[in-house]
Task: inverse folding
């Protein structure tokens, strides 16, 4: 069941990028913003269902490690997409101030759970007081991204390799309501699969004797992040580079809300104070990988080793290094 749901998530996820790219062109909201909000939230639905269902089942480490493990995996997926785009470094071609702003907000969203973990377990009705702050920060970040899109105070330097989303042509004349309905249908299928992934992942953890942190960060997180992988590569191949980068960063921002949703679903107190140091390690790794990505977006290296940027090499190395370390600990 775990493998079957992973396959369904991957197959359905391939449809999301095309629909989101068309909606970005038809509505005029732009690839970076549509990627961060519509595509980011749509591809993340499986993960939030997995985190909330496992938190409600009393598995805090699996719930939180699934959320932050997904952020780390999806950031690494962007490096894989960089490999797929052979022309130039993806972070150079997809320069966007919206993506820079949202990456900065993501770092803030990931730091808040660590602060809650290190603080006394202050909760009202089993919900930590920092949870509403996390949610509010997310929406402030979205508003900030919209303001940056509408009134940018600076623009990236244009080069021969910079890909402008205005260069894309949309020949899909289907009604917007139909495109939106098709996108919603794919989100529904992925959400159902997310519930199955959470249930089977928790059962695998118990039967095989593997820690919830490892199953969450390397099992359910990777599976529920498959839509991000397939939609990112599909977007890159379509030439929708800002949609690809925005989908990953925006999806990661939305994934940070998994932590807040898990805290509400967890009924035994504050979930932040119930997780172990191994889960905190994955939060710290996700912050580090986001900072590396942010530097890559600012540096905009044209070519690195093998045609990809140095930040992509670092992202892949950091994720696999963290995975090997966690597996070796058992």
Result:
């Amino acid at each position: 069941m775990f493998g079957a749901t992973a396959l369904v998530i991957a197959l359905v996820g391939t449809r999301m990028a095309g629909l989101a790219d068309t909606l970005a062109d038809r509505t005029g909201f732009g690839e970076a913003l549509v990627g961060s909000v519509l595509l980011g939230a749509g591809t993340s639905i499986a993960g939030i269902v997995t985190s909330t269902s496992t938190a409600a089942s009393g598995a805090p480490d699996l719930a939180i490690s699934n959320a932050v493990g997904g952020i780390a995996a999806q950031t690494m997926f962007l490096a894989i997409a960089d490999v797929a785009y052979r022309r130039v470094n993806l972070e150079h071609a997809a320069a966007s101030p919206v993506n820079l702003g949202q990456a900065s907000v993501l770092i803030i969203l990931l730091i808040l759970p660590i602060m809650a973990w290190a603080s006394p377990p202050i909760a009202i009705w089993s919900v930590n007081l920092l949870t509403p702050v996390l949610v509010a920060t997310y929406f402030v970040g979205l508003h900030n991204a919209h303001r940056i899109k509408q009134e940018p105070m600076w623009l990236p330097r244009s080069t021969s390799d910079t890909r402008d989303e205005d260069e894309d042509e949309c020949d899909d004349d289907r009604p917007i309501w139909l495109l939106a309905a098709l996108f919603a249908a794919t989100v529904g299928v992925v959400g159902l699969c997310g519930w199955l992934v959470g249930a089977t992942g928790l059962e695998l953890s118990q039967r095989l004797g593997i820690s919830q942190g490892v199953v969450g960060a390397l099992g359910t997180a990777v599976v529920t992040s498959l839509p991000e992988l397939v939609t990112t590569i599909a977007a890159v191949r379509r030439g929708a580079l800002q949609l690809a980068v925005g989908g990953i960063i925006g999806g990661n921002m939305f994934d940070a809300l998994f932590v807040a949703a898990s805290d509400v679903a967890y009924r035994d107190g504050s979930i932040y104070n119930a997780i172990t140091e191994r889960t905190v390690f994955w939060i710290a790794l996700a912050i580090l990988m986001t900072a590396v990505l942010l530097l890559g977006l600012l540096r905009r290296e044209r070519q690195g080793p093998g045609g990809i940027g140095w930040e992509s090499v670092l992202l892949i190395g950091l994720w696999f290094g963290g995975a090997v370390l966690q597996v070796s600990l058992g």
Q: What stands out?
A: The mean pLDDT is 81. Residues 2-158+179-328 form a domain with the A middle domain of Talin 1 fold (CATH 1.20.1420.30). DSSP finds twelve helices and two strands in the chain.
